[in-house]
Design goal:
The complex is a heterodimer of chains A (642) and B (204). With 642 residues, chain A is an alpha/beta fold. Chain B has three domains: 3-79, Roll (Ubiquitin-like (UB roll)), CATH 3.10.20; 80-122, no CATH class; 130-198, no CATH class. In chain B, helix 2 runs antiparallel to helix 3 and helix 5 packs across helix 6. Chain B is globular and about 60 Å long. The chains are: A alpha/beta (642), B alpha+beta (204).
C-alpha cells in the first residue's frame, strides 16, 4: 500500500480503483454480517468462489462478503451488481444456478426472489422489496456494497472524501458549525445535540482532548451499531477523524464490547489500512493534522454504555458512572475535554460534511433530524435493521416495513429504547418516532431497539424481565438504583407469581419516583421506565394479577393451569406421549385428563396438541373444571351432526 | 480565592470556589444528613442521602450536595416534602440490610422511616464505601475493595494484602456506619477463606 499525501492524490487513487473495476463488471455481494453468517453465509461465499473458479469466471466477476444490509429475517442475502438483483435465503445448492443463469446469461432465478406475502408479487431488485422500499437508507445502504475488510471498497464509494474536504478546505470551527447546523442529536440514547457537545470541547482551554466512539451496544435485541462497525468500519473512522480535527483532538478511542469479535476484528483491520494509506497517523493528507485511534475492548458491563462509566473504564478502573456534575466535553477522559458519541452518530458525520447540513435536515422532524436505524425484533414478520427518517410512525415501521405480526396474532405493544425504555400500546401506534415524542409517551429513543410484542406477552412479566436485567447491570454504587431495583424486582416477581397484594402498585410507583429523582446516572433514573410505562398503559393487567390472580395474556406460569377440553379431545395420544412427567392420563379412545398435582406447566401438551383440535387450554383466574366421569371419557364414534 | 455568596435555607452563606454545597452548609452550621461522606475522602455520591434542591435563576433541580459545587446566586433548600420523602425511602431501603445501625436509626427517627418496611436481608453492608475508599485514598493499601456489581455487589478484603496490613491498622472499622463488627467480620471471613489450615472439610 502506498501513502496518500494529499486530497488530489486521493482522488487520483480513487479513479484508479474505479477504472480497474469497470462499472459493468458483475459483482456478487453476499452479506457476511452476524445474522447471515449464522444462516450459513460462510458456506454460500465459499460455494460462489468455488463455482466461479470452476466456470473460469475469476476475471469477470467480483465476489465479496459484505456488511449487513438489514434484512436478517431472510438471510443469507445476495445482491448482484450492477443490476442489484436480490436473492434471499440462498443456500450453497443455489450457487451453480445463480452463476450459470444470472452471471452468465443475465437471467433471473425466480425462486430466489422476494415474494410479497400479501400480493404474491415477486420483487427482482433490492429497491422493489417493501422492506427496503419504505426505508430511507442513508447510512446502512453502503453496507452491502463493500467488503469491510477492504479499504479500496470504501474508497470506491467516495470514502474519505469528507475527510479530504475538511482537511483541505474547512477550518475546525467551520466543521463544528456544519455539524451544529445539521442539528444531529446523539444516537446513543440521550439525544443531546452533537454540535453543541463538539463546540463545548472545541472551546475548552485544555490542549489535550479526546474523541470517543461508544460501541458498547448492550441493549438486548439491539444490533445497529454492531452492523455498522462490522459492515462499514471506515465510515465510523472517517467520522471520528473529522471529529478529532474539529475539536482539536489527536487521539480517538473506540470502546467496543468484546462480545462483538467481528466488529473488533474489522475495526482493527480498518485502522491498519487507514494508517497504511495515511488517513490516520501524522500529517494526514499533507494537512499537518495528526491523529491516532486506539481500540479498547469492554469487559461486558451494560453500564459502560453510560458515557462517564465508559470513560472510567477507559482509564482502567471499574466502570462506574462519575458522580460529578460536570459535562464530559469539558472534563471527561483523564479530566480532559472529551467528545463521546455513539457509532451511528459518528457514521452520520461524513455524510453531513459531504452533502451538507441542509441535505441532512431535509429528513426528519423539526426537533429530530436525519434518519435513525432501528433493530426491529420480537413478534414481527421481518426481523432486521431498518433505517427510516425520524418522524415515521410506529405503525409504518411495524406494518409497512416490518410486515406486521406473524401467526395471525394481535399486536400488543412495542418496547423502544432498550431495557430502560418503555412499552407503547396499540392506540399510540400513530406516534411519530422522534426523541421528544417517545419520551413524552413514557419511553425513549435509546439507541434504537424496537421489540414488538403480541397478545401472548404479559406486560407485568415484561416489566419484571427488564427490571431483572437492570438489577444485574446496575453498577451497584448508588442506593436508589441498587436497592430500589432490588425491591422492585421482588414486588414484580411476587405479582407474576400470584403473590401480589393491595398496595404493590403504589409501592412500585414510590420506588420508581425515588430512583428517577435521586439516582446517580441515567441507568438508574430511567430504570423504572419498564414498570412506569406498562402500569400507565396496562394497569388492568397489573390489577388482574394482584386482585384476581389472573394473567390475562396466559403467560405467567404460576397463574395458569393447563386443561384438556373433553369436548375437543379426540384421544390422539400425542400429548399423552409427549408429557415429560406423565401427568396425562388417557388411552386410545379415552379422553385425556391432566393430573394437576403432577403437572409442571411446561406447556408441552399445549404446544403439541394439533391446531385442528386445540383441545389443550390455558386457564387463568378460574378453577379447572372438574374431571368428567370415567364413563363419559370413553369415545364411542359419536354420530353427531347426522 | 474569590468568595461566592449562596443562600441555604434562607441563610446567606459565604463559600469559596470549588466548595461543595455540603461543605458550605456545614461551614454555616446547617446540617445535611450523610452516610458515605467523609471529610478526608473524595466525594462519592453513593448514598444520595444528602440530596438537596438547588435553584439558579428560574431552573431548579435535585442534586447531591456532597458533589455539587457552589456557584454564584445559588439558592439551596435542604428540606422539603420531596427531599424528606427521598431520604425516608433511602433509609428504609438501607435498614433492610443494617436494621440495627445506630446511625441509620437516628436518621430514621428524623425522617419517619419505617425500620421494617422492606424484608430484611441482613447483609449489614450498606455499600457506603468508606472502608474501601479510606484504605485506598488515606492508607494507600487497597486491602479492601468492592466485588461484583448490581444487587450482588459486596465488599471484600484481599487476603494477601489484608494479612499483612490490617492487624496493625483497623482504622476502617470505626468508619463503618453500620457497626465496627461488620468490618471485622468481613475481614475475618476473607482471611479464613485464604488460610488453608482454617478451612474445614466440606460437609458430606
Amino acid at each position: 500500500m502506498t501513502q496518500i499525501n494529499s486530497p488530489a492524490e486521493l482522488e487520483e487513487f480513487r479513479q484508479e480503483i474505479l477504472s480497474r473495476r469497470g462499472p459493468d463488471m458483475p459483482c456478487l455481494s453476499i452479506c457476511a454480517g452476524a445474522g447471515c453468517m449464522a444462516f450459513g453465509a460462510g458456506e454460500v461465499i465459499a460455494a460462489f468462489n468455488a463455482e466461479i473458479e470452476k466456470q473460469g469466471l475469476q476475471a469477470d466477476v467480483d465476489t465479496k462478503g459484505t456488511g449487513c444490509p438489514g434484512f436478517c429475517e431472510r438471510g443469507p442475502v445476495v445482491v448482484i451488481y450492477p443490476d442489484e438483483i436480490c436473492y434471499l435465503q440462498v443456500t450453497p445448492e443455489d450457487v451453480p444456478e445463480i452463476v450459470s443463469q444470472t452471471i452468465r446469461k443475465k437471467k433471473v432465478v425466480d425462486r430466489l426472489l422476494y415474494v410479497d406475502p400479501n400480493t404474491g408479487e415477486k420483487a427482482t431488485y433490492e429497491s422493489d422489496i417493501p422492506f427496503y422500499k419504505n426505508q430511507k437508507r442513508n447510512i446502512i445502504s453502503s453496507n452491502i456494497k463493500i467488503d469491510p475488510k477492504t479499504i479500496d471498497d470504501y474508497l470506491a464509494i467516495d470514502g474519505y472524501s469528507a475527510l479530504a474536504k475538511v482537511l483541505s478546505g474547512m477550518s475546525p470551527e467551520e466543521v463544528v458549525e456544519e455539524v451544529k447546523k445539521s442539528n444531529i442529536r446523539g444516537r446513543g440514547g440521550g439525544g443531546f445535540p452533537a454540535g453543541r457537545k463538539w463546540e463545548g470541547s472545541r472551546n475548552a482551554p485544555d490542549k489535550t482532548k479526546y474523541v470517543i466512539v461508544n460501541a458498547d451496544e448492550g441493549d438486548p435485541g439491539a444490533f445497529m451499531d454492531r452492523a455498522l462497525l462490522e459492515g462499514n468500519p471506515h465510515l465510523i473512522l472517517e467520522g471520528l477523524i473529522i471529529g478529532g480535527y474539529a475539536i482539536g483532538a489527536h487521539e480517538g478511542y473506540i470502546y467496543v464490547r468484546q462480545e462483538y469479535p467481528l466488529a473488533v476484528e474489522n475495526v482493527n483491520i480498518a485502522i491498519n489500512q487507514a494508517e497504511a494509506y495515511g488517513f490516520i497517523g501524522e500529517n494526514i493528507l499533507g494537512s499537518g493534522f495528526d491523529f491516532k485511534v486506539i481500540v479498547h475492548k469492554g469487559a461486558g458491563a451494560f453500564v459502560c454504555g453510560e458515557s462517564t462509566a465508559l470513560m472510567t473504564a477507559l482509564e482502567g478502573r471499574a466502570g462506574e458512572p462519575r458522580p460529578k456534575y460536570i459535562r464530559s466535553n469539558i472534563k471527561g477522559l483523564w479530566s480532559k475535554p472529551s467528545v463521546l458519541n455513539n457509532v451511528e452518530t459518528w457514521a452520520n458525520v461524513p455524510l453531513i460534511i459531504n452533502k451538507g447540513a441542509d441535505w441532512f435536515t431535509q429528513f426528519g422532524t423539526e426537533k429530530s433530524k436525519g434518519t435513525k436505524i432501528f433493530s426491529l425484533v420480537g413478534k414481527i414478520a421481518n426481523t432486521g435493521l431498518v433505517e427510516v427518517p425520524m418522524g415515521m410512525t410506529l405503525r409504518d415501521i411495524i406494518y409497512n416495513i416490518g410486515g406486521g405480526i406473524p401467526g395471525g396474532k394481535k399486536f400488543k405493544a412495542v418496547q423502544t429504547g432498550g431495557p430502560s425504555g418503555g412499552c407503547i400500546p396499540e392506540n399510540l401506534l400513530d406516534l411519530e418516532v422522534g426523541f421528544d415524542e417517545l419520551t413524552k409517551a413514557g419511553s425513549m429513543m435509546g439507541s434504537g431497539g424496537m421489540i414488538v410484542m403480541d397478545e401472548d406477552t404479559c406486560m407485568v412479566d415484561v416489566a419484571r424481565y427488564f427490571i431483572d436485567f437492570l438489577t444485574d447491570e446496575s453498577c451497584g454504587k448508588c442506593v436508589p438504583c441498587r436497592e430500589g431495583l432490588r425491591q422492585m424486582l421482588k414486588v414484580l416477581t411476587n405479582i407474576t407469581e400470584g403473590n401480589g397484594k393491595e398496595g404493590d402498585i403504589e409501592l412500585l410507583e414510590e420506588l420508581s419516583e425515588v430512583a428517577g429523582d435521586a439516582s446517580l446516572c441515567a441507568l438508574g433514573t430511567s430504570a423504572p421506565n419498564p414498570f412506569l410505562s406498562t402500569v400507565r398503559y396496562f394497569r388492568d393487567e397489573y390489577e388482574a394479577h394482584i386482585k384476581e390472580k389472573r394473567c390475562p395474556a396466559l403467560s405467567c406460569k404460576e397463574l395458569i393451569t393447563y386443561h384438556i377440553d373433553p369436548e375437543k379431545c379426540v384421544a390422539c395420544m400425542i400429548c399423552f406421549r409427549k408429557c415429560p412427567v406423565d401427568a396425562i392420563d388417557g388411552a386410545k379412545k379415552k379422553i385425556h385428563v391432566i393430573d394437576q398435582d403432577i403437572c409442571t406447566k411446561c406447556s408441552t401438551c399445549f404446544e403439541v396438541c394439533p391446531s385442528r383440535f386445540s383441545a389443550v387450554q390455558k386457564i387463568s383466574g378460574a378453577p379447572v373444571p372438574p374431571p368428567i366421569s370415567e364413563e363419559e371419557r370413553t369415545i364411542t364414534r359419536k354420530s353427531k351432526a347426522k | 480565592m474569590s468568595d461566592i455568596l449562596v443562600k441555604i435555607d434562607g441563610k446567606e452563606v459565604e463559600a469559596s470556589e470549588g466548595m461543595t454545597v455540603l461543605g458550605a452548609a456545614q461551614s454555616a452550621g446547617i446540617s445535611i444528613p450523610t452516610l458515605c461522606h467523609h471529610e478526608k475522602l473524595e466525594p462519592f455520591g453513593g448514598c444520595r442521602l444528602c440530596i438537596v434542591n438547588v435553584q439558579v435563576g428560574d431552573w431548579s433541580k435535585h442534586v447531591v450536595s456532597c458533589v455539587y459545587t457552589v456557584e454564584e446566586n445559588l439558592v439551596v433548600s435542604t428540606r422539603s416534602e420531596k427531599i424528606d420523602q427521598i431520604r425516608k425511602m433511602i433509609l428504609e431501603l438501607q435498614l433492610a440490610h443494617a436494621p440495627d445501625s445506630p446511625q441509620l436509626l437516628e436518621f430514621a427517627e428524623e425522617y419517619g422511616a419505617e425500620k421494617d418496611r422492606f424484608e430484611k436481608e441482613a447483609s449489614f453492608c450498606i455499600h457506603c464505601g468508606l472502608c474501601v475508599r479510606y484504605c485506598d485514598e488515606v492508607k494507600k493499601k487497597n486491602a479492601v475493595g468492592f466485588v461484583d456489581r448490581g444487587i450482588r455487589k459486596e465488599i471484600s478484603f484481599i487476603p494477601e494484602i489484608a494479612a499483612k496490613e490490617c492487624w496493625g491498622c483497623k482504622e476502617c472499622f470505626e468508619l463503618c456506619p453500620t457497626e465496627a463488627l461488620q468490618a471485622a467480620y468481613v475481614l475475618a471471613e476473607s482471611l479464613i477463606a485464604a488460610t488453608p489450615s482454617f478451612k474445614t472439610e466440606p460437609e458430606k
